Every structure is written in C-alpha cells, then in structure tokens.
Model the fold of this input.
Amino acid sequence: MSLELSGTIKSISEVEQGTSKAGKDWKKQTFVIANNGGYNDAEQIFAFEVLGEEAVANLTKYNKVGDIVKVNFNIRTNEWKGKYFTSLNSWRIEKADNTQTVEFEGAVQDLPF
Done:
C-alpha cells in the first residue's frame, strides 16, 4: 500500500547504522514532517524512515529542515517478542514547488540542474 502526505520538514536525525544477523551492513535515517491536516487544523507530525546507503545520502543531499515536501511512503509493521512496531518507509520525496524529486528505491532523480 502506497500513501502520500505533504508537510514541512521539521527535523532530520543522525544516521543509524549496524550489521544484520545475516552479516549485512545497513543504514537508516529518520526525518519528521508536520502538516496542519489534523483535528481542528492542529499540527500533526509524522516520522518517516529511509533505508539504505544511497537513500540516506540523498535525503540530506536534497532536503533540508524547513523544506515543504510531498512524501510517498509505505506503512510496515514488524512483530518482535509479542510486540508490534510500525514504521513509515519513505520511498519518494518531492519539493512542493516540483523542482526536485528524489526516489529512493531505484534512485530516480529529476533535478532542475
């Protein structure tokens, strides 16, 4: 299921990295956007993840705190020891003015320069 949400980037976290049980290195980064589409037009925040070395590099290369963006994402839930963890996995970010698009899976980039 692919969803879309627009808002302003409020924060971009430090890069997290490690090694999986299978011995593969991984990287991920979280960014938070806020929009005013909530109850009584109150600001709502959403934390998205990007996964993989290229996606992490592209997140901070093309996006900054304060940018107004449209995010395409998938919702994913994992179970671990009887507890459930839900994450919003971003696979594409577009600037609101459509001058820049970064797609993380497949690394499609449509830049104005």
About this structure: Residues 106-113 have pLDDT under 50 and may be disordered. DSSP finds one helix and eight strands in the chain. Residues 2-110 form a domain with the OB fold (Dihydrolipoamide Acetyltransferase, E2P) fold (CATH 2.40.50.140).
